[in-house]
Amino acid sequence: MSTEPIVSIRGLRKRFGENEVLKGIDFEVQRGEVVAIIGKSGSGKSTLLRCINGLEAFQQGELEVDGQALKHGNAAAMRALRQHVGMIFQSFNLFPHLSVGRNVMLAPTLVKQRDKPAATAQARKLLERVGLAEKFDAWPDQLSGGQQQRVAIARALAMEPSVMLCDEITSALDPELVGEVLRVVETLADEGMTLLMVTHEMGFARKVSDRVVFMHAGRIHEMGPPERLFGAPQTPELQQFLSALH
Amino acid sequence: MIQLDFLAVLEQWPALLSGAGFTLGLSATAAVVGVGVGVACGWARSLGPAWLQRLVGVYVELIRNTPFIVQLFFIYFGLPSLGVKLSPEVASIIAMVVNLGAYAAEIARAGIEGTPRGQFEAARSLALTEFQVFTRVVLPPALARVWPALVSQIVIVMLGSAVCGQISAQELSYAANLIQSRNFRAFEATLIATAMYLLLAIGVRQFLFWAGPRWIFGRPQASGR
Amino acid sequence: MVDFSLWDIFRNLLLAARWTVGLSLVAFAGGALVGLALLLVRLARWPGARLGVSLYVQVFQGTPLLMQLFLAYFGLALLGVNVSAWVAAGMALTLYSSAFLTEIWRGCVDAVPKGQWEASESLALSFGETLRHVVGPQALRIAVPPTVGFLVQVIKGTALASVIGFIELTKAGTMITNATFRPFTVYACVALLYFALCWPVSAYSRRLERSFRRVH
After folding, report:
1. Whole-number mean pLDDT of chain B?
2. pTM score, two decimals?
3. Which chain A residue lies closest to B143 (C-alpha atoms)?
């Protein structure tokens, strides 16, 4: 098994204007690890995730994913990095003018130059994997929130990423639709996908993750296996955070 | 008692039809190129560098605050003194493209600026190039959003092309003018040509509302919008 | 050989521009009156008003202004009225403006929430009172920016009156071009003068729209 971390972050600092949102992050993720990132809003957890695929630029530090260093000014380098990192958004962001199948096929066709029959076959397989095989020709606005999010997962998987970033992917869903999405994520975890999830679903995080990261005020405050973080929180901030959830 | 003789004009239907065809041809060419110019300028104004935004802004304001006939005369009569000699047809198309481009620029800009930020982020996260993000993800829904305004503007430019008869472009108003210079039925010729313009306007509008969803931006059965 | 200076050209164009301004104001004012009448007829739900006004608007918006000017010119001549280009142009532009203005204003009245009408009715206000005290003022505020913006269209429209012989800015430009053989300079000046007339109005309309949006 490779011992090289798949995501390596050193001394990351990020400011929004005068406000320093990430105050020096040092963090490594191993291949196949499932990491849950939790914390209050404003703790910087979404910002950290968005730094990893370059949606946010950072002022100081180094970031490497699957051997690709993150170089902001270099568009080609950014695109190369993004072929290794998939992202799922809280608001799904499906393309409204394309059918479900074409949503999944768009990037492989344009970026990986896959021909149409191959891309179609791959899209069908991925939609089947997320339980939406019959929705290939449907339009995004005909689907429920949970279905749209599962299509978004299939769309990201079509690029065969090594790492998947999940940014509060169930926060915008009605409660009864959350389960179907989490089941798909759990399958991904079981299949060995490296996952970084910012989430409020503590039960899910406890069940599925190998490591939990608690962020507070722009720093990694506590980190460790879920049993320890949820069962025996060390710092008062984490204790406060967990008690506020009940 | 006023004697109206429409038959004398209707007998000349081949000339009228030819003129209408020419008007359609001018307008179709101007529409395709003009919308292209407009989309490029709309991109420049919403996503381009600051100096380009200002340059396009000057172009847009100049065109929108001067009459089309003056723009046409400037291109057809004015440019030859710079050594650029143009036929009436080419001058007409250039004037119409320049005119439509400015209006389409503002319309396209409104469409592009209505794009939710998440669409940009999702497309970039999938490793698409900026060009692919714009043409495959941002532009189709943007055009759908502003299609009624764009269609209206195309019809306005088509109706405005009547002025091109003044520089002897052989479009519909020129045909009507020719007819009435021969049979002196000025009112009848003008009325019939005007009715033809109305039919053209209605027809072009229907066609573009049918063609847009089918050929340009995706869903033939636009539901829920 | 008479050599015309730039100032000669410009001065003559400026003189002609007075007629552009005059025609614009007449057409805009006339169009506003007719347009308002059409709007009221439509709102009062006179029989056939909705269809009639709608057709009126569609005809004027669906045909070239140039042809409308020709129709006025030739039509009045047919009736035996010895009409100057000024009257024909004034008439045609007035009707043209009325169609566009009535349509703009109809949109503004529609933009006032239906609940306003219902509340007034519940308070036993008559149609006229509702219009004068409740819906009218609200619609008026919405209407100011696009109405000011339409003035720009009217000013540009007067340029077509040159084709039926009315001597305004564009016609003067043509005549001066024929005298000086400097079309590039002359038409550039013509364009600049139209710009000087239109751009301030456009900018003002935009400012009104921004301030309207801020309040709401």
Report:
1. 93
2. 0.90
3. A97
Number of H helices, E strands in chain C: 9, 0
| Tally of domains in chain B | 1
Res. B183: pLDDT tops 90: no
Which residues, including other chains, have CB under 8 Å from residue A153's CB and lie 6 or more apart? A88, A130, A181, A184, A185, A188
Interior/surface letters B1-39, b for 16+ CB within 10 angstroms, e for the rest:
eeeeeeebbeebeebbeebbebbbebbeebbebbbebbb
Query: B206 lies in a domain?
Result: yes
Residue A244 lies in a domain: no
Among B115, B117, B124, B125, most A C-beta atoms within 10 A, so best to mutate, is B125
Please report the pLDDT score of residue C46 as a whole number.
Answer: 86
Tokens of C182: 């400097």
Distance (Å, whole) CA B192 – CA B16 = 9
Q: Which helix (H) or strand (E) holds B67?
A: none
Task: Please list the ranges in chain C whose pLDDT falls under 70.
Answer: 1-3, 215-216
Q: Is residue A219 predicted with pLDDT exceeding 50?
A: yes
Q: What is the nearest CA distance from C194 to chain B, expressed in angstroms?
A: 6
> What is chain A's mean pLDDT, rounded?
93
* ipTM for the complex shown: 0.92
DSSP character for C64? Answer: -
Q: Domain of residue C196: give its range.
A: 6-215
